Amino acid sequence: MSDTSTRTHHRVCHLCEAMCGLVIRTEGDKVTDIRGDKDDPLSRGHVCPKAVALQDIHEDPDRLRKPLKRIRTAPGEYQHVEIEWSEALDLAANALASTIEKRGVDAIGAYFGNPSVHNYGMLTHQRNLFRH
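Structure (tokenized):
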């Protein structure tokens, strides 16, 4: 049995540095409406077409909703298998740790572009994510 109650979520669009405030309405897992948040002090209810298109991205039937792991089935042949998020994050963390152990901390780089460089929280707390 799925939850079909209507809910309102106040979020921020992550598609560019403007970080416009959004009001998103949902029924269960389905997005029913996306509008600009009139109470947002910066965007004051204005949003561009990209923000409204977030609904299309969310509802896209081809969108990946779970991580995939590439498994070698034969020489030169692979298949992708759905895995849980916890396993995917563990695989990524272990691969990063292994790379640092083998090649040093300079072997790992991070790219910070839009919108994280314009996000005060990301600017002030990135060092907590990257300790080296």
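The mean pLDDT is 87. The beta strands are 6-12, 21-27, 30-36, 68-74, 77-82.
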